[in-house]
Amino acid sequence: MGTRSRLAASHAPPDRDKSLQQYRARAARYDAELLPFEPLRQEAVARLELRPGETVLDVGCGTGLSFAPLQERLGPQGHIVGIEQCPEMMALARDRVHASGWRRVTLLQAPAEEARWRGRADAALFHFTHDILRQPAALDNTLAHLRPGARVVATGLQWAPPWAWPVNLFVLGAASYSVTSFDGLAQPWCALAERLEGFEVHATWMGGVFMASGFSPR
Prior knowledge:
seven-stranded mixed beta sheet, single chain, Rossmann fold, alpha/beta
C-alpha cells in the first residue's frame, strides 16, 4: 500500500488544539516557509477579481501575507477581514497592519466556525487552509458572512495521481506540519464544491496543489 493510499485511509477530523500547537511553533518562521508558495497566493488573489472598495474575508489569514496583494486591488476604501485562531500568528498580522498603516483591516481572533462580523463581504479567500476546508461549520459560517454571488477562491495541497510519487512525497512533507488530519487530502475542496455555484477546480504544481473557485449561492 503506497504512501498516499495509507494516509488517505485515515478519517480523523481536524484537531483544533493540535492546529494551535502547530502554528504557535511555526509563527516566527511562517513567512519564510510560505515564500515558495507566493506565486500561488498571487494567482489566488487575482482569481478573486476584486474591485476597489469591496470587502474580502481572508479566512485563516495567518500572519497576513495576503493582505498586501488584497490591498492593492481593493484600494484605500476596500476592507479586509482577517480571521485567524492562533494568537501568535494574529499578533504578527497585527504588526503587519500597523507597520503598513492600513486603516481598513479588521482582525478577528477566532476559529473560522466561530468568527462573527456584522457586515457581508464580496469575496472570500482560503489560502492553504486544509483544516478549515474540512470543517463544514467553518464553511457554513463563512458563507453566512458573504453576499449572494460573492466570489470564493481556495488553494492548497492535495494528493497528486498515484504515479506521481515524488510529488506526493513533497505533499506528505508539507502537509505533515501544516494539517492535523490527512482526511480528504485527495479532494480537499469537495465540501466547498457542494456549497458554491459555478464551482471550478484545477490542479497545478504537477498535481500536488489545487486552485478552486466559485460563487456563494444567489
